[in-house]
Amino acid sequence: MKKTSTRLADGRELLYYDVRDDLVRDETDRRPLDPVSTASELRHDPLLGDTVVVASHRQGRTYLPPADACPLCPSREGRDSEIPADDYDVVVFENRFPSLAGESGRCEVVCFTPDHEASFADLTEDQAALVLEAWTDRTAELAELPQVQQVFCFENRGAEIGVTLGHPHGQIYGYPFTTPRTALMLRSLAEHRERTGGRNLFDDVVRRELAEGDRVVLEGEHWVAFVPYAAHWPYEVHLHPTRRVPDLRALDEDARAEFPRIYLELLRRFDRIFGPDEPPTPYIAAWHQAPFRGEGAVDRDEFGLHLELFTIRRTSGKLKYLAGSESGMNVFINDVPPEAAAERLREVASK
Description:
Elements: E1 2-7, E2 13-18, E3 40-44, E4 51-55, E5 90-94, E6 106-111, H1 125-143, E7 150-157, E8 169-175, H2 180-196, H3 201-212, E9 216-219, E10 223-226, E11 235-241, H4 253-270, E12 283-288, E13 306-311, E14 313-315, E15 318-319, H5 324-329, H6 338-347
Antiparallel strand pairs: 1-2, 2-5, 3-4, 5-6, 6-8, 7-8, 7-12, 9-10, 10-11, 11-13, 12-13, 14-15
Helix pairs in contact: 1-4
């Protein structure tokens, strides 16, 4: 992998990640861009104890542009995009409309492929491996920023999820705090250790799923994917490395080598859940990594890196809405038994 860092016309950083190490990335951003102006504010909720990001400048962000005006496609003659080059493998750049910036953290965009009509599931194993390298590199670099406590790599896919750009891409957030969801996991981790005399919660969860077996979707030598016992979403899969590590940086070479095959198969099965004539399945794919500093980092070596993949579609043509119980009280009601979801995901395995 070759990494090249450059700057866009408004000063934002852009990084090319290329398979070939002989490529020269010297294209310049010719757009007359104004400097990025942000108005992010972190507000503490005294009742729930969490943090809300108020980012009013994001109201003007790009919203569902036509394909010929996509800002994530390579630049072409007469049409300059966010990527100055006329082709690329993987690109990461600072978000033009960030939720978090400066002392409040950092937001980046990850372009998985120059092909506007593709999806992550269409990537080759080599391309997916390069994305993993980019996620890992960005995790390592953002972890060095003093204002960043936790790094979150994720992909939103599909208009139903709220995606505003159709080009296959993901995002990376560098939070200046430990997120509420991670804080809950860390609390459960500590309670489980106390209750069991020192056992690790993540290890026990994976061990249980492997022992019971009926929720396991896909198992490799270095990764296991399963529908969790108490899945919140109609179709939800958790992907864990079989050797527990706190973050992407700590994956060994064997796990890195196997990941593309396992993950691409999961994504392809997700697109087949509802049948061959259905539109692509909307989903969120979210990497959970241990915090790097702050109170949340106390148990970071006990934390288990994993990816959570889920869809808000519950059946053909119908979405799972977060209504009163879910949105009002955070009590999820799942219409699809986890064992049935796992069985369906096994049924649609690639031939």
